[in-house]
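Rather than argue in generalities, we have chosen a single entry, letters for residues, whole numbers for local backbone shapes, without further comment.
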Amino acid sequence: MGASLMARNIFNQPPKDENDSAVRSPTPPKAAKLPGSVGGLRDSLREITANSIRDLDPDQIDMDGLRDRLVLEDSSIHELAESIRKHGQQVPIMVRPSAQPDRYRIVYGRRRLAALRMVGGMVKAIVRTLDDDATLIAQGQENNLRLDPSFIEKSLFIKEMQESGYKPNVIQDALGLTRQGVSNHRVVIEQLPDGLVQLIGPAHGIGRRQWGDLAALSNKVDLVNTAKEVIAALPDDTPSPEKFQAVFSACSSKARRDKKPNIRGLTSVVKDKDGGSVGTLTIDEKTIAIKIARKDNPEFGRWLEERAEATLLQLFEQWRNESGSGS
């Protein structure tokens, strides 16, 4: 993904501030209500005007708001631009008035706007006065219908919405998800280290289970540095899903190599300087056991039985003194 990302960082959005006119949409003044059919006609004309399609200069439109896509400048944007060049803009974008005169803020249609800026000319846009919640819902639903975001793009969008202070019901409505669905996305994205998703990209077709499996390796492998090494060795035009598979394979292999071998019942015989058996020492993952066979050394066995507890405490205190673990 890299340089194809827009300059604005998806994780560093400004906080929502209801008193900041640059964040909240201006509320148009309410016109005096007229009686009878005159008032109804005026309301109808206002509704028609509010929903009409206008031709706007692309430079009048600010590409702000929450990002729901990881990539806005890829081959599909060039293909869309070529289609618009041949057939014209078939579907309008939606914008809302900005606090600044004759300026607008994008609601949905970011890909179309990017393509139209390549083509040149005016942009067909529906202008609607929407508050932030309605804008978010319109953006999420329109994008879900037109080009379904990948699992990880939705997860990033959810994270950004939560950090920006949107309520859970607004987030659910924006993406058409249940509360559990939102939680499933959030759990995975919170386990992934910052920067990993930007390296891999949207990875369409890679679902929750696969991203979850990769996230589970984060406590065993440096995912970000491994991903950088793997992706650097791939061709520049490698599709994002293939990048994911290559990174996951490398991280899984590294985790297996670095896994410590299990110690299972390692038993050794302890002998004295003359070669006689003193006892056995058994070590496994859970215990360290010293065993003395009374039949082999009955007198030593009786002696140790009387002193075993004191000897164990003495060894423990010696360890504390040598390791500096004493209080």
Remarks:
- Residues 206 and 241 are 7 Å apart (CA to CA).
- The chain is about 50% helix and 10% strand.
- Residues 271-317 form one domain.
- The two ends are 53 Å apart (CA to CA).
